[in-house]
Amino acid sequence: DPGPPDSQARSARSRRYGRGPQGSRTTRWRRFFVPKASTRFSICHGQDGGSSPPSEEDTIFLHFPRTAAVASLLRHPPPSSSSSSSSLVRHGRRGPAPRPRPAPARRGGPSAGRQLPVALNSCSFSIHIYQLNEEGPSSEHLEEETENIIAASHWVLPAVEFHGLWESLIYDVEVKSHLLHYVTTTLLFSDKNVDSNLIAWNRVVLLHGPPGTGKTSLCKALAQKLTIRLSERYRYGQLIEINSHSLFSKWFSESGKLVTKMFQKIQELIDDKNALVFVLIDEVESLTAARNACRAGTEPSDAIRVVNAVLTQIDQIKRHSNVVILTTSNITEKIDMAFVDRADIKQYIGPPSPEAIYKIYLSCLDELMKCQIIYPREQLLTLRELDMLGYIENNVSKMSILLSEISRKSEGLSGRVLRKLPFLAHALYIQTPTVTVEVFLQALSLVVEKQFEERRRLAACVCDSGYWFGS
């Protein structure tokens, strides 16, 4: 969006590259008004003034932190002919969009909550161009006696199945930025040869919380994101998801040996310094059960060997700068404290708040409008815009206020369930090719009520069964 028409902005507003005004490629650099920390843009190839919408292959993401600007170019193919031109559009609209009005300052300072202009000609850009791997995961096998065990799944990153996963994850806390900063600091300390005996870091992250909150998805999305951002340092990424349950052998004392064999295979991947290796251990409590329970006789003694093997292998691979260990847990009280102490970050991932639920629903509705299942398209307001309007109901805010009420009613549901509800709303209450926003929101409200009713009935059945067995 064009900024103030001062002389300095005019002199830097347009830089042209090409062979001339006719049939040339033109790249226009403009002063942009950035309303938030991350703004999505698209580049459309074709004649100026065309009517075709931007495709998924022509998407550019410009990330604007408050202190610097970083541009990430995603899947941006070269133009098919020399007569094509590039025009910068925002959210599918061609040409420069009108500059939004600055929001009023919030408490906490004169500039708190205010939209800040960013001059692109004074910023440094980091552009990442990459190709997604479409091969899918492969399996890592371990041989045990006469059996062939599938011990892990292996992805080469960036992978097509994780594309867009990072943007779809919505949390109330700044967990995503914290994890990015953590890995950045890890690499910095390694590059500067900081003595790990004086300042310790183990390259281990533990995400814990109730099921369905996106812990495993966040680990996979983080691996994909870092592989792209660190493409100048590492040629590709490797993601190894360990199947914890398969490492327990039916033969006594063999489980610890299987863990050692698995980490030996991981060590072979780490030895390639052109690769950034991520080790994902989902439900890590399976491998790191508390040894106190083992000593008390409530767990088999073979489990002690597994815990010892895991801790030993972590201590060995943490010496390498190109590895990050990502772990998740639903039952943190069962994890051995020696493993918990080794985790640099222990982040709780809880159910989303009504504000986060609103953003999740908003992204679902936007996708259904894009696919024309919800038609005609209607503009839904953000929570910030509703705050500015004081939640006063009118023709513009009516549907958004209804969505905010549904979001408050959905509190307590996990992110996994919330992403299913739009599908269930259509399947159970609509069943037509197209539907209006109002009708869809009414169906969504009904399916939310149905979810809580099913949970109450399930809880009642469990209580009745428990009473019956007890009697």
Ordered list of secondary-structure elements with their pairings:
Blueprint: H1 7-12, E1 32-34, E2 38-46, E3 59-63, E4 70-74, E5 85-90, E6 116-118, E7 138-144, E8 147-157, H2 165-168, H3 175-191, E9 204-208, H4 215-229, E10 236-242, H5 255-270, E11 275-281, H6 291-295, H7 302-317, E12 323-329, H8 337-342, E13 345-348, H9 354-370, H10 383-389, H11 398-409, H12 415-429, H13 437-470
Helix pairs in contact: 5-7, 9-11, 9-12, 11-13, 12-13
CATH architecture of the domain at 138-348: 3-Layer(aba) Sandwich
CATH class of the domain at 138-348: Alpha Beta
Biggest beta sheet attributes? 7 strands, mixed
Inertia-based shape: globular
Oligomer: single chain
GO biological process, one term: reciprocal meiotic recombination
GO molecular function: ATP binding; ATP hydrolysis activity; identical protein binding
Keywords: ATP-binding, Differentiation, Meiosis, Nucleotide-binding, Nucleus, Oogenesis, Spermatogenesis
Domain AAA+ ATPase: 201-353
